[in-house]
Write a structure and sequence with these properties.
The complex is a heteropentamer, with 2 copies of chain A, 1 copy of chain B and 2 copies of chain C. By secondary structure, chain B is an alpha/beta fold. Helices cover 35% and strands 25% of the residues of chain B. Chain B is built from 9 helices and 10 strands. In chain B, α4 links the parallel β5 and β6. Chain C has one domain: MetI-like (MetI-like fold). Chain C has a two-stranded antiparallel ribbon. The two termini of chain C are 49 Å apart. In chain C, 60% of the residues are buried. Classes of the chains: A alpha/beta, B alpha/beta, C mainly alpha. At the C-D interface, α2, α4, α5, α6 and α7 of C face α2, α4, α5, α6 and α7 of D. The complex binds adenosine-5'-triphosphate (2 copies) and magnesium ion (2 copies). One adenosine-5'-triphosphate sits at the interface of chains A and E.
């Protein structure tokens, strides 16, 4: 798999410095005052109950917040020393370039109404991989990486909407990694996956360590434990999500500083 | 392409249009390089278009008093007052017609059938000639329907049992001969026929004119000339108008 | 790590620059903008054209265009130039047509999307498209020969607001129906499935869920249909009677703004011609006003 | 457990029966079907009307309607009744108008959906709707006063296929644009977000993803636009020159089927009148054929 | 909560007898020859790898298969002695009645573009709960049952599309249970849920035991273990999913008959 072209095209140093980050939707606060450092090449897990602002947090990191009505952010997120929440990145071309470097996998799989192969090749094509064979090769590699290749190799031309739930989710992961972004935001990438497929994706994430920076939202605490270098717990006390605690994963799980953390990670869970 | 193809545009009175089209048809067959475009819109349009050069020839279905254009007489025509074929009324006096168009008479004499007054739009010389003959003012008219072309008037009367209207005798005669349910009412005791227009006994007669901006030349002159030939007269007579010669 | 906050100096910015549209894509992008601009410019040109030609009448007559004693125009200011009856006529015919057409169109679409026989759906869709292909002259003739005499039996002479509205309703039906249909087709299937899984019958699902998502299509259809109804000339000229008056019943004839233009523009000059252009301007204003209220109503519904 | 397989005897069937639409809903449902039926019936009535009136000419002339030496009609069979030049004229003007309008309309919609300034988007949308509200007489006048003299400077007399196509293109632009726009709006936001998250620029997302989902809207727009272009009368009458001939260049005047009807129906009788109705029938047939090919092309694209 | 009206209206005896069931999409086989008995009032878990036909299986049980292009079923499913795959139920009214009795929760949450409250009340209204107050009451109860009430009580009028992923999923569960169907088909209802919300839903399922019949697709084996009375494992060997083994849950997990089952349930999983 020829990684040269794409990898080169995204040159930023993939480390994130988040300080005082807040997200509001109209007058509803979704997240407030989050400060966090994400090291280049590390895997960060975000955990917390439903509605505590995990997805909103991810959305800030590649400005998907711009695309939601009434959504506003405060604070700043520095990527490679540049505040990506600044106005300069509001311009569509700049935002697109940012999102090219900071890929995202959505919580709800959203395959395009195209064929399975085109779903992956579209992004490659749009980002300048003009050679058809090369695109197909990269798409194959991505499908193999998420363990979907065997299942779909005979129906690459069928529309992706006929895939099963778990297949769609893996396709969306493949679509994002095929572009080899420097930073990968994954919103519950294993939610629709059974243990086997889940394991495959976890393995993929682990492989990315060092080369890519991964921010992973997961409700599977065991998964966070297995793959993440550091883990952050968000909590919503009723008036907007907050960062409760962030620490190296083993520390957070074994010696939680906060009472809430202790209760949450020790709670009855799989 | 056909660089030497010539075009003639003729616009104006919808009364003259069928004559012009028929003449044009034969004329085109005789001169394969000529194409003639005939459009209606009323005599006022014909006059205006000829004046400002939008048309080569204008068609005006009344006597032309304007002195800035050149008028050439084409034929004579009469205006017929028409009613639905099923209408039992055989004749109307001039007073009755005036009353009807003023809205003073709202039902057909001898029945309780309400009258639908079909009137022509402004700018149509049929309307002007009609109003002038009956000494009516435009504002006095209480119309139920205002129509543009003759054909619209005929169709409207044909579709409404209680309607009264007025159109060119030519158009009316042609339609009633072709099973359209209308009938032509006599005027002042004279039946509305081409013969009575020709012998001058029909009271509501008028001129049909070609108008051109200057003395007709070239193709326009040829075409106007063609209307006065025997073939032309035959066509005019065939459409129930009275040719000049 | 580069700590400068200047965008230009950062590697990310370089990436951004290198990823702005390039090559044939840049051209395509420019072309798109150019086309959009062109369309807007042409629109402005037309409106400007109408406005310029209207100038003379607006200056010379002003409010007289609405307060004169009637419509007896002339080339100079001695005529009477009241456009009010025509405005009322245009509005009445168009709104009545819309009131008849909108429910039928929406019903047709509900039918198409809740019918379980695929062949019937396809046949019906083709029929609606066919209706869209019938030229307005044919509609006009049909109205004059069929609808007007029919209405004339109720109340002579038949040429009336109602006749115009009926024919126009049929004419704008496919516009509304096709727009609503295409918007409904773009609604994702999962919404439909969600409704059906609750045990709702297909047609309730379309009515209560899909239509909601597709309402922008229905509104757009209504706007296009209204525009067409207000702007239609041939049909109203043939079946509305063209009498300049303020009607007191829908069985009375009226003259619309478009019919007025068509009847008189061909020979009009001077102030009369300019007043006719004012009619055109008024039509455009009416459409703008109606669009505006359609959007307001749409928001209410949303 | 009841083991009978007869549906009627089961409790589930009872439930089913009790849940079939009832009360006002049943009425509404019936009304919907009735409306749909009504629309279809009216359509059939019109087509039947046109077909009946055409009968005489079709019987008397048959293939002569396409093979006669020209269009020199008369009340009886001694005339010449070749409709071919008019068919060609109608098709040429409509297709050329479509070829001009479709790209601009799609470009406008691409622009609207990829523009990041909300006020500009709203303004542009309103402008397109405004364009939809300009009556055809006004378009015709504009064409006559502005476009024709302009083209006349290139090659006299200016009244030509191109003039008609240009004005018609502008006229059908809002139809296509509004349809495509409303279908695009019904596309779920998550597809758009998915594309943007891949780092595609907004306009590429619309072009490559959203438009695909909304293609039924574009096709419907094209169909409506074509129907309108083929059926439009006033404009072509004013700017196309109305000369019956097979054109050899788009700068030549032609006569369309609709113009032919409008020009001659006013006084035609007998066979000529019937032949004019054949024109109407042919127009409908043309639209059907074009719709059919639009759907075929649409399927290819899908 | 007044359960009378709705509960009465669905009168079938909620037991399912599935025999020789197969599903194909065009010429692709998704599922073949599944025979299975589901007792009234029991909870059945369906487990298996991605793409093995779990969702397709559920879709047969309330004829959602009718709504997918090129989808065909073989075999039969008897509900209360009537074959619901028979032609009688093809008619929209019959199918609607069936779906009224056999509720379904989709794998991918699909809230309607309505307000949060309307999402739940729509179904109630359409099924004859004409009293507004009663509808609101039932909606409230359903929202409380899925643990969403606290989070959304102040924004019931907002569009449901602004909810977070997990909130949407719970809303869809609430929407289905508000109608109190006799049989509830749940396709990975906890996939987007964190441990706390997950537990709440599990608790809800457990509460339904006895009164409702539940068929639960889950990729969380521990969850199947916790809540299901019987568990079925599906597997796709590459040419269509099959039923590998079905047994009482404790039996399947502790004494699996098949080698595949043993590997799957014993595999590395949360
Ligand atoms: N577009 C929106 N408008 C209004 N409120 C929103 C919007 N999107 C999210 N919210 C609210 O903001 C809060 C945080 O949402 P977010 O999606 O970030 O939660 P989350 O942590 O990802 O939850 P989950 O685990 O359920 O996905 C929630 O209360 C949610 O309802
Ligand atoms: N509409 C369709 N057309 C064609 N193939 C389909 C369709 N829906 C599903 N399939 C295929 O059928 C097989 C079974 O799909 P199904 O959705 O039942 O899987 P599943 O067990 O639910 O998987 P998951 O755990 O990923 O949701 C898969 O290979 C899938 O790709
Ligand atoms: Mg989330
Ligand atoms: Mg599934």
């Amino acid at each position: 798999m020829n990684k040269a072209i794409l990898a080169e095209s995204c040159e930023c140093e993939p480390a994130l410095q988040i300080s005082g980050l807040g997200v509001t939707y109209g007058n509803q606060i979704a997240l407030k005052d989050v400060s966090l450092t994400i090291e280049a090449g590390s895997i960060t897990a975000i955990i917390g109950p439903s509605g505590c602002g995990k997805s909103s947090f991810l959305a800030c990191l590649n400005r998907m917040t711009d695309l939601t009505a009434h959504c506003a952010t405060t604070g700043n997120v520095e990527l490679d020393g540049v505040d990506i929440l600044g106005d300069a990145f509001r311009k569509p071309a700049q935002a697109a370039a940012l999102r090219r470097c900071v890929g995202m996998i959505f919580q709800k799989p959203n395959p395009f109404p195209l064929s399975i192969a085109e779903n992956i090749e579209l992004g490659l094509k749009e980002h300048g991989v003009t050679d058809k064979a090369e695109r197909r090769e990269k798409a194959t590699a991505a499908l193999q990486a998420v363990g979907l290749w065997e299942e779909v190799q005979h129906r690459l031309g069928e529309t992706a909407l006929t895939l099963s739930g778990g297949q769609q989710q893996r396709l969306c992961i493949a679509r994002a990694i095929a572009l080899e972004p420097k930073i990968l935001l994954m919103d519950e990438p294993c939610s629709a996956l059974d243990p086997i497929a889940s394991q495959r994706v976890e393995q993929l994430i682990a492989e990315l360590r060092g080369r890519y920076t991964v921010v992973l939202v997961t409700h599977n605490l065991a998964q966070a434990r297995r793959v993440a270098d550091q883990t952050a717990l968000f909590w919503n006390h009723g008036n907007g999500g907050e960062l409760v605690e962030v620490a190296a994963t083993s520390l957070l799980f074994n010696q939680p500083r906060e009472a809430i953390t202790k209760a949450y990670v020790g709670g009855e869970c799989c | 392409s056909q660089p030497d193809r010539q075009q003639l545009t003729i616009t104006g009175s919808s009364t003259i249009a069928p004559v012009a089209s028929e003449l044009a048809r034969i004329f085109e067959q005789m001169n394969p390089d000529v194409r003639i475009d005939v459009q209606t819109g009323g005599s006022s349009r014909g006059l205006a278009d000829a004046r400002n050069g939008l048309a080569d020839i204008g068609m005006v279905s009344k006597a032309v008093k304007e002195t800035d254009v050149v008028a050439t007489l084409l034929a004579r025509d009469g205006l017929a007052v028409i009613a639905h074929k099923s209408n039992p009324v055989a004749a109307l006096s001039s007073t009755q017609i005036v009353q009807i168009y003023r809205g003073e008479l709202e039902q057909w004499p001898g029945s309780n059938l309400p009258i639908s007054v079909v009137h022509k739009a402004d700018g149509r010389s049929t309307q002007e000639v009609f109003l002038k003959h009956f000494k009516l003012q435009p504002r006095e008219i209480k119309a139920s329907v205002i129509v543009g072309d003759n054909e619209q008037g005929i169709k409207t009367v044909a579709g409404t049992p209680g309607a009264i209207g007025y159109v060119s005798i030519g158009a009316a005669q042609y339609s009633s001969d072709n099973d359209v349910p209308i009938k032509l009412l006599p005027l002042g005791g004279v039946t509305a026929t081409v013969e009575n227009v020709q012998n001058g006994s029909y009271p509501l007669a008028r001129e049909l004119n070609w108008v051109t901006r200057d003395m007709p030349t070239g193709l326009a002159a040829e075409f106007i000339e063609f209307a006065t030939t025997n073939t032309g007269s035959e066509i005019i007579r065939g459409l129930y108008f009275v040719p000049v010669n | 790590m580069n700590n400068s906050t200047s965008l230009a100096s950062s590697a990310l910015a370089n990436t951004a620059l290198r990823h702005s549209p390039k090559g044939h894509d840049r051209w395509l992008f420019l072309l798109v903008r150019l086309c959009a601009l062109l369309a807007a410019a042409l629109l402005l040109l037309i409106v400007a054209f109408v406005a310029t030609e209207s100038g003379q009448a607006i200056q010379a007559l002003g409010a007289r265009l609405f307060t004169d004693s009637g419509w007896f125009p002339g080339a100079d200011a001695s005529g009477q130039f009241n456009l009010t009856p025509m405005i009322v006529g245009s509005l009445l015919v168009a709104l009545l047509a819309m009131a008849i057409s909108l429910p039928i169109a929406v019903a047709s679409v509900l039918f198409v999307h809740s019918c379980s026989q695929p062949w019937l759906v396809i046949a019906y869709r083709r029929a609606i498209e066919l209706l869209a292909g019938i030229p307005s002259v044919v509609f006009g003739l049909w109205g004059l020969v069929v609808i007007v005499p029919l209405l004339g039996q109720l109340q002579a002479p038949g040429t009336s607001i109602l006749a115009g509205a009926l024919v126009l309703a049929l004419m704008i039906l496919p516009t509304i129906a096709l727009l609503a249909d295409s918007a409904l087709r773009a609604v994702p299937n999962e919404l439909r499935l969600g409704g059906l899984a609750l045990g709702l019958s297909p047609w309730r699902v379309v009515l209560r869920i899909q239509l909601l998502q597709a309402r922008s299509g229905v509104i757009a259809g209504a706007i296009l249909g209204l525009g067409r109804a207000l702007g239609e000339t041939m049909v109203v000229l043939m079946v509305c009677g063209n009498v300049v008056q303020l009607p007191t019943s829908i069985m009375q004839p009226i003259r619309t703004l478009t019919a007025n233009i068509a009847l008189e523009m061909a020979y009009a000059g001077g102030l009369q011609r300019s007043a006719l252009f004012v009619s055109g301007l008024l039509l455009i204003a009416l459409v703008v006003a109606l669009i505006w209220s359609a959007h307001r109503m749409g928001r209410g519904y949303a």
